[in-house]
């Protein structure tokens, strides 16, 4: 019997949209901070103090949200991968890699993507008998990796900035990193949502089959452009 993954999917979707909202707030604070640096002031005002506090608080909130998002994403992906085996399919890796691959240097640059791609493909094949060769997965992973790299650079620049010019430069870098963070979080939510729909079909078919009745034909997710085309 397949394990229900709908609740984990919904949690992951919601928290990634919250992450996107937090990144938007951080980007707005970056713009305000750049404006403050551009105009300068000999004596810091109350507004300046509030801005400093807001940036510090937002940094902490962002860290908490990203950690939570990472946890729920891995929990959802691992269960989705386990369900492939429970559906009688052979998987390329053990289900432990669905979680562990995110933490191993260099391997984490590609293997989480290949595991997610395997879930995407196999779930659709079991659900509707065809695969939708969508570019969503490739765009998602490219943005995710790019966001990780830019975010790391942004943190280093902010830590080493000392002059006004360096602070302005690092803040602009942070602004663009937050824009990437928004895109990454939204794309992650979209990927989870897309796969979750087919998981629901698969779960329904498994339940009906367990009652000894033929599985219903899926009708909702059969766009005409479905093919068995392989994709990277």
UniProtKB/TrEMBL annotation:
Occurrences of domain DUF4328 (ranges): 55-196
Name by which UniProt lists this protein: DUF4328 domain-containing protein
TM regions (residue ranges): 12-33, 53-77
Listed InterPro entries: DUF4328
Pfam families: DUF4328 (PF14219)
Species of the source: Hymenobacter tibetensis
Keywords: Membrane, Transmembrane, Transmembrane helix
Higher taxonomy: Bacteria, Pseudomonadati, Bacteroidota, Cytophagia, Cytophagales
Domain of life (superkingdom): Bacteria
